[in-house]
Amino acid sequence: MNPSFSSYLVNDVFGDPGVYVEVRWSKRALLFDLGHNDRLGPRKLLHANDIFISHTHVDHFIGFDAVLRVALGRGKTVRLLGPPGLINNVQGKLQGYTWNLVDGYPLTLDVQEFHPQEVRRALFRATDGFRQVEQPARPLLPEPATGKFTVLNDPMFTVSAVSLNHRVPSFAYSLEEQFHINVNKQKLHEANLPVGSWLKDVKEYIWQGQPDEFRFTATLYDKHHREERELVLGEIKERFCTISRGQKISYVVDARYDEENEAKIVALVQGSDLFYCESPYLEVDAGKARDRYHLTAKQAGLMARKAQVRDLVVFHFSPRYTGQGEALEREAMEAFQRI
What we know:
Blueprint: E1 5-9, E2 19-23, E3 28-32, H1 41-47, E4 48-52, H2 58-61, H3 64-71, E5 77-82, H4 86-94, E6 108-114, E7 118-125, E8 131-139, E9 149-153, E10 157-165, E11 169-177, E12 180-183, H5 185-190, H6 198-207, E13 215-221, E14 226-232, H7 233-240, E15 241-244, E16 248-252, H8 259-269, E17 274-278, H9 286-291, H10 297-306, E18 312-315, H11 325-337
Parallel strand pairs: 3-4, 4-5, 5-6, 16-17, 17-18
Antiparallel strand pairs: 1-2, 2-3, 6-7, 7-8, 9-10, 10-11, 11-16, 12-15, 13-14
Helix pairs in contact: 10-11
């Protein structure tokens, strides 16, 4: 089975935090946090139209300028989602520049901040010199037991979050594919159907919940000709598709290890295929970690085990441990795998 998401750290484990998630078979990506991100390059930054901010400490938000720079002049909307205060933070960034020559630029920034009971939203359009335009707020209903709430609902996947204590709200996120659709290329070949972009449409129809009797026109290409053919969704599903459990990727940064934070994290990341978790400190410095509202590598491993995740990636190591990255990874894995 080919996974739908391909994810990796934006920087090395001592660099600014951030995870880049490519949505395979599309020119789309999701970006978690906006630390220093020059390594991604303009093409990858342009694919990340949905950006999820944990909080706006400098190492999580300084990369905003790079995204703005490459997106400026593009006909697109960049959506930024995150904690209370994000709208003012974006406005402050934008007010640091002069915008008298961008009235013909089509870029829009759609900024949404999630409060305990409502979602506030503002648009910043280049055509208006990035003047803030407030949008109607909408209610937010977190799960009472876990504090989890939905940040983005896409036909293919859902991004959920919880608010953690970092002396400011720090959002942790999980990305969960609704279900996975695998297409059997060998069976397509046997049926004289080519692999092509029409299969992306098939997946979209299935994720949208179209009924089996739904009919659609597919444009089929092969080496010799192009053909328009009407197909029935249910027949394509039955003959060529296997539907299975979707992927889940979780991202947790900058949170103190206490009872409330731990419960929220474990509930959010439960059953993740891949759990990205900060671990700036070794357990020997747990007191310092608590004072700084951060986790230790051992605490990251313990939560990963409790949440029964498949794989754990620890990162965001404190520079005090330069040259000791393996020790932090080993401590996390020993707690995770009960070594």
